[in-house]
Amino acid sequence: MAYEYDIFVSYRRTDTVGRWVTNHLVRRLEARLEDESPYPVKIFCDREMAEGVNWPEALKGAIRCSRLLCAVWSADYFRSHWCMAEWRSFREREERLGMFSSLQPQGLVYPVRYADGDYFHDDAKKTQCRKDFRTLNYPDDVFQNSLKYLEFDELVKEMAIELIAQLKAVPEWRADFPIVTPVPLPPAIVTRPVI
Asked: Which domains does the chain have, with CATH numbers?
């Protein structure tokens, strides 16, 4: 086995984040990577998964065969057992490879901020987001016709350049790359005031 994808996009499939990622981020990133990279860069985004495929196994396979993780962080990202498993898989890989230290802060995870920051996982709070899209996170198609889209495109272009540089530092594929199995979070207990 070997790498099949250069970048695995990890995001929460909500009405806002999911549509922003698929309508804007991945499409624009693919175009900007094509403009900037001396070789083709292949992105995995679950929007391309075929119907009827064994979804959990396909995701695990894509994680195992991806060089970098682009994590789109929001408060809801850290409530998803799948998102956490994707992120932890790459963090454990970094640990196994001796990456992500004060001397090598880039590691294998490229986090971008979609929203929030106050309610991120404690480990995520220790990691600086590479790009902040909080003021540019409009999920609808009309966003492409706004002036803010120019700012968005500029950030994505910078992102593409940084990802290409980060891809050069990725070690060779290894069969012992860990895959964290998602653990469902316990259901939230909601108490209502007695009236």
From this structure: 5-167 (3.40.50.10140)
